[in-house]
Design brief:
Elements lengths: L15 H15 L19 H4 L8 E6 L5 E3 L2 E3 L1 H12 L26 E7 L4 H27 L8 H10 L4 E6 L3
Parallel strand pairs: 1-4, 4-5
Antiparallel strand pairs: 1-2, 2-3
Length: about 190
């Protein structure tokens, strides 16, 4: 009698790994990976002794910028447009209220900063403030400082910002330090 054995059907899977590898390469090459956007900021260094790092700020050296849930911009409780922020920040920082800054060209107003090294920008925003508005305000503040620093570089070194050395950049950053305090106002 003849025995019947059933042979299970097998599929040659040797080329499956090759196909999977080719598909992987195809999708990696054809897929676009979106880059995350963000703000390039260097965080302050850690302060070992907190008492040395905390200092009182004179009220006139503090510029308050507030963003609310209606996407409105307030500077010192006055409603302003986005296009005005750069000029207001630049005038505030470069005010020279104490008349001690030999490179400042400000109006020496009594309600603006004493010296660029003393000027602090306080940026507060509501929890419902849109990210785009927050970034736009950050950009305007950065533009104001860039213009002040570029003018200082031209006056002090007779160069453009792209031509200065690292040592000169340190001098510029000491003359116009970028001091921004950011606070999110929580809603109840």
């Amino acid at each position: 009698m003849k025995s019947f054995r059933r042979h299970s059907a097998t599929v040659n899977a040797g080329s499956m790994a090759d196909i999977a590898f080719l598909l992987l390469i195809f999708f990696l090459v054809t897929t676009t990976i979106s880059a995350d956007k963000g703000i390039l900021r260097q965080l302050p260094s850690d302060c070992p002794d907190i008492k040395e790092c905390i200092k009182d700020i004179n009220e006139r050296n503090l510029l308050r910028i507030s963003l609310n849930h209606k996407q409105e911009i307030f500077i010192e409780n006055k409603l302003v447009k986005l296009e005005e922020v750069k000029d207001i920040v630049g005038a505030f920082v470069d005010n020279n209220g104490a008349s001690e800054c030999d490179y400042c060209t400000g109006d020496k107003l009594s309600e603006a900063s004493d010296h660029p090294r003393e000027a602090v920008i306080s940026l507060s925003h509501d929890a419902l403030t849109k990210y785009e508005l927050f970034i736009s305000i950050q950009d305007e503040i950065t533009k104001a400082y860039y213009e002040l620093r570029a003018r200082y570089i031209e006056m002090k070194f007779n160069k453009t910002p792209s031509q200065i050395t690292d040592e000169e950049l340190i001098t510029v950053k000491k003359a116009y330090p970028f001091i921004v305090s950011e606070v999110m106002v929580k809603r109840n």
